[in-house]
Write a structure and sequence with these properties.
Layout: H1 4-25, H2 31-34, H3 37-48, H4 50-62, H5 69-80, H6 87-95, H7 102-116, H8 122-134, E1 138-143, H9 151-171, E2 177-180, H10 194-214, E3 218-221, H11 226-242, E4 250-255, H12 261-275, E5 279-284, H13 289-299, H14 309-324, E6 330-335, H15 339-351, E7 360-364, H16 369-377, E8 382-388, H17 391-406, H18 411-417, H19 422-425, H20 454-469, E9 473-475, E10 488-494, E11 497-507, H21 510-529, H22 532-548, H23 550-561, H24 565-589, E12 593-594, E13 601-609, E14 612-616, H25 624-636, E15 640-643, H26 649-662, E16 669-671, H27 676-685, E17 689-695, H28 698-709, E18 720-724, E19 729-733, H29 739-751, E20 761-767, H30 768-782, H31 803-819, E21 821-825, E22 838-841, H32 848-851, E23 858-864, H33 867-875, E24 879-880, E25 882-886, H34 890-899, E26 904-907, E27 924-925, E28 943-951
The structure holds dihydroflavine-adenine dinucleotide.
Length: 963
């Protein structure tokens, strides 16, 4: 279809259909815009007041989880107490803060929810079926729920769907229609583990679909967030293969806001054609627009949706037409509430002569009842999407609907609240010219690899193979100026497989260490004279080389320290960030800068390097921390000696090679693989080492601080120690916490990389009212994850670093059994250094499990009476590295901000994964020397300042100041 006259005819037809739909649809308002009383007043105010709208949604989001009247009143006051509505309604609003009115407030929100969500009782479903039959319209039902955390929840979701199917088969004259969300069918629906996720979802679907096919029920797969799209489509095509039954209509929702939607539409059409079977396509615009944009911006990924609404609307029309062109194999459902989009669909269907049975319009329950009536009155097949469930399960759905109704560019708002002119509402979408990306300038983190793209996953797999084929080499000891024999050999092994040797490293002796320091001293003079711009350039060049080899570096981490793919990639990305961030910072600090203006005198200050730096790094962030400390020292003008951890020497050797390849002189950057107790200690005590950057355990860190403080013969400067130590990090779970979020983020914070991050959570302090629920859900959620070699992406949890570490952690697990109650112990393979994850409850603040750093997958859950006590318990520790709070009460969040004094406090998010620049990272108290890495002040620790004051007065002549 095309050509100006056809298009003109189409537009004329849209205008005519649109007008008649409009006239009918305006006879009444959708319920949300028609509410009376307080609800109506609040809704009306919320449309014009962005902050009130946000406060209202926050309150509604919290409500399902609030048990007592006092809690409801407290949250009402916290979110809405500051808003003034005049007259009677203002007084009622103020009363909402009173516990006695909590019931009324809850009932009011329930009423809003019931506009969009049907109660799960058969009687309510019967009622809605009868109501729809009068329109007339049919229904597709959705047992609300998405992204489950445990397999038990997934099983319950399936069960609810089966019950719904049977109920509909009994109650309705038509074949049942159900919409399902695949992410609710398994707790691990992860695009990185495509085949496993697909298999798990299919295992549950098989049973349900067998029955659906028998009943000739239509089953439509809902589309979810962009990251899951590939996996959802793959699973959908697997369903089509597994259930080839003629006469059964499977369907998929496709989102027009995604620029790649046409490709998916074509894939479905081609498939349907090749199998000569009919497939339903529900065309939607897409429900996750705000989240997609925010997440992509946070992650620095390309934004996967259009940014101009007219582009979405235009693509919607193009895809409508495309679907209508294949009526023999596609059954289109045009889903939405936009007058123009619907009028276009009706006009396009008419132009093609499509009959009533060839397609249908779908709308969401409660969104646009008057428009439903108008469409039905035109003899168009109409189906209403009916979500079924309680408020707790349906809260995410409800919030999406409320946002959709009230967003500035929402068609419902424009039609019913703003009463836009008909010509505007029916105007053809005209996208504005694309503007250049308007993202914030300043430092930008390297985006992580998006493993939902199969090409990225394939490249990583390839890198793993390549790294493996190059393993087994011996890394020779090579310090210029000495041929001393190595002190020994270190065999590097894969922690996931005890017998696998990755390589052999010749270890440095003290002679090597002395020679390395002498070389560095010799190089210092010339290195500090290299302009800061040039040193920064070398860091950037190293970053570029690192990026070129990012998969290979990350693959080596997977094998050498047992990180999973995502964690290994994040470590490489962080290393790149440090190189670029410190380069940028050094450029800003470079050169003489005048101090305060002082007539007759010139006062200048400059930052200068301190001298030879020993970089003593840990194995848990094998590239990022070593690179961060080394690049800060180097770019500041200090020669470095890299003393990596024994468990991560192969990665360290890669970094060393990259720095030299980028052009850093060999004497300025030397690699000294050696034992901490001998070589590390020797460097710390060496009179010619002026700077020590250390990250590791508190025990070693304190010993370094002490030794570096002792002046030895021949020493010519006070040593500076930059020291990052461990933590005993606590997460507080408040009574009103969103438990879905708290469980998910605690799981990753406590067990990510097997709890071997200094930022990891090792204590949870849960309020009594949520303690048991939280603990059992966390245990069930953790149980969904098998442990295994992380080179296989189905495993996100792997081994601990060494046998020694394994034994130490196991001793803590034994201790925990006597101090508290072991409520969960996982299962692990025998082949490597695996520790089965453990969760304890009943731990008290005085117990060793609550006080000592374990550095393994062991979590203690403590119980607190109230938030203030929980905070006291969290602070009752010598460590103060990271902390977390899950709460939705603004007062508690404020209290935590003020009193929860740790280096990095995270609120309503996981407590690991700090990003350079955005979340400078490091501890205070006994967790570190208190200046965060990747922050504005870190680099200054590698520098000292010099000031020059010059008298410029000459016999009364005062020269002009130097600007
Ligand atoms: P309207 O014309 O107001 O469009 C709003 C939509 O435009 C937003 O939702 C967004 O998609 C898009 N948009 C908003 N701002 C934009 C901007 N600045 N730039 C570009 N685009 C912008 N959704 C989903 O993701 N998966 C699913 O499976 C389903 N299932 C479903 C079933 C049924 C029967 C219906 C009716 C709806 C869905 N939806 C859905 C929800 C659907 O995506 C949502 O209701 C529509 O996007 C609303 O579009 P309208 O045409 O009604 O409104």
């Amino acid at each position: 279809m095309g050509g100006p006259s056809v298009l003109h005819g189409l537009e004329a037809s849209i205008a005519e259909i649109g007008r008649s739909l409009y006239e009918r649809a305006l006879r009444a308002n959708p319920s949300l815009f028609d509410a009376r009383g307080l609800r109506g007043r609040l809704a009306a105010r919320a449309l014009s007041d962005e902050r009130l709208r946000s406060a209202l949604f926050h309150f509604i989001d919290t409500l399902p989880q609030l048990d007592s009247a006092a809690e409801v009143a407290g949250h009402f006051r916290a979110y809405l107490g500051n808003y003034e509505l005049g007259g009677l309604w203002g007084r009622v609003l103020r009363l909402g803060s009173h516990p006695a009115l909590a019931g009324a407030v809850r009932a009011s929100v329930q009423r809003v929810a019931r506009e969009f969500l049907v109660e799960p009782q058969p009687s309510a479903i019967r009622r809605v079926l009868r109501r729809l039959a009068r329109l007339p319209a049919s229904a597709t039902f959705d047992a609300v729920g998405e992204a489950v955390l445990t397999e038990q929840e997934a099983e319950r979701y399936l069960q609810r769907n089966v019950e719904l199917l049977e109920l509909l088969a009994r109650e309705s004259n038509e074949p049942p229609a159900i919409s399902v969300k695949l992410s609710a069918l398994t707790a691990r629906f992860d695009p990185l583990d495509r085949s496993g996720s697909c298999r798990r979802a299919m295992a549950r679907l098989n049973w349900f679909l067998t029955r659906a096919v028998e009943l000739k029920a239509t089953v439509t797969v809902d589309m979810e967030q962009h990251e899951l799209k590939g996996l959802i489509l793959d699973t959908f095509f697997e369903v089509l293969e597994a259930f080839p039954h003629a006469g059964w209509l499977p369907g998929i929702a496709l989102q027009a806001y995604a620029p790649d939607a046409p490709a998916h539409v074509e894939r479905v059409i081609q498939f349907a054609r090749s199998r000569r079977r009919r497939i339903g396509v529900r065309l939607v615009k897409g429900a996750y627009w705000d989240t997609e944009v925010a997440l992509a911006e946070q992650r620095n990924w390309p934004i996967p949706v259009f940014l101009d609404k007219a582009q979405t609307d235009q693509q919607y029309e193009l895809l409508t037409a495309r679907l209508f062109d294949h009526p023999d194999v596609i059954y289109p459902a045009i889903a939405g509430h936009n007058l123009r989009s619907l009028a276009h669909a009706i006009a396009a269907a008419r132009m093609r002569g499509l009959g009533r049975d060839a397609w249908e319009v779908q709308m969401l329950l409660g969104m646009a009842d008057p428009l439903c009536k108008a469409v039905a009155s035109k003899g168009i097949q109409l189906r209403v999407y009916v979500p079924v469930g309680d408020l707790l399960a349906g809260i995410a759905y409800l919030i999406r609907r409320l946002m959709e109704n009230t967003a500035n560019n929402s068609i419902l708002r424009q039609t019913y609240a703003e009463r836009r002119q008909l010509v505007d509402l029916l105007a053809a979408p005209h996208p504005a010219p694309v503007e250049a990306e308007g993202r914030a300038t300043g430092f930008r983190n390297i985006p992580l690899i998006d493993f939902s793209d199969p090409k990225s996953a394939a490249a990583f797999r390839h890198a793993l193979d390549a790294v493996r084929s190059g393993l087994g080499r011996t890394l020779r000891m090579n310090v210029d100026g000495t041929t001393d024999r190595p002190a020994g050999h270190h065999v590097c092994t894969n922690p996931a497989s005890r017998d696998e040797t990755l390589g052999v490293v010749e270890m440095a002796s003290l002679v090597h260490a002395d020679r390395a320091v002498a070389n560095a001293v010799g190089a210092f003079e010339s290195w500090r004279e290299v302009p800061a711009m040039r040193r920064a350039e070398l860091c950037r060049r190293t970053a570029d080389l690192m990026l070129e080899r990012r998969e290979r570096l990350a693959a080596l981490e997977v094998l050498e320290v047992g990180k999973n793919w995502r964690e290994a990639d994040a470590d490489v990305a962080e290393a790149v960030d440090y190189l670029r961030f410190y380069a940028q910072q050094m450029e800003a600090l470079d050169g003489w800068r005048p101090t305060a203006g002082f007539p007759g005198e010139r006062n200048d200050l400059r930052y200068e390097p301190r001298g030879v730096a020993a970089i003593i790094a840990p194995w848990n962030f094998p590239l990022a921390i070593l690179t961060g400390m080394a690049s800060a020292a180097l770019v500041a003008g200090n020669p470095v000696i890299l003393k990596p951890a024994e468990q991560a020497m192969l990665i360290a050797a890669e970094l060393h090679a990259l720095l030299l390849e980028a052009g850093v002189p060999a004497a300025v950057c030397q690699l000294l693989p050696g034992e901490g107790e001998t070589v590390g200690r020797h460097l710390v005590e060496h009179p010619d080492v002026g700077l020590i950057a250390f990250t590791g355990s508190r025990e070693v860190g304190l010993a370094i601080l002490e030794r570096a403080g002792r002046v030895v013969s021949g020493q010519r400067q006070v040593k500076r120690v930059v020291c990052e130590m461990g933590g005993k990090n606590a997460i507080l779970v408040d009574a009103d916490a969103d438990l879905d979020e708290a469980v998910l983020h605690t799981l990753h914070s406590a067990f990510g990389f097997q709890g071997q991050k200094c930022s990891a959570a090792s204590r949870v302090i849960a309020l009594k009212s949520v303690h048991d629920r939280f603990a059992s859900r966390l245990a069930d959620a953790l149980d969904c994850y098998p442990y295994g070699p992380p080179e296989d992406p189905q495993y996100i949890f792997g081994p601990v670093i060494s046998e020694q570490a394994r034994e130490r952690i196991e001793r803590y697990v034994e201790l925990g059994k006597s101090e508290g109650k072991l409520i969960y112990r996982g299962r692990v393979p025998q082949s490597g250094h695996y520790v089965a994850p453990a969760i304890f409850t009943g731990i008290l603040p005085r117990h060793r499990l609550a006080r000592e750093e374990i550095f393994g997958p062991v979590l203690s859950i403590l119980c607190a009476e109230n938030f203030s006590q929980a905070l006291d318990m969290a602070l009752d520790s010598e460590f103060a590295l990271t902390g977390g709070v899950f709460s939705r009460l603004p007062e508690h969040i404020d209290l935590a901000r003020r009193r929860f004094r740790v280096g990095n406090l995270y609120i309503n998010r996981r407590i690991t994964g700090a990003l350079v620049s955005a979340q400078p990272f490091g501890g205070i108290a006994m967790s570190g020397t208190g200046v965060q890495a990747g922050g504005p002040d870190y680099l200054k620790q590698f520098l000292w300042t010099r000031v020059v004051s010059e008298n410029t007065l000459r016999h009364g002549f005062v020269p002009p100041s130097a600007g």
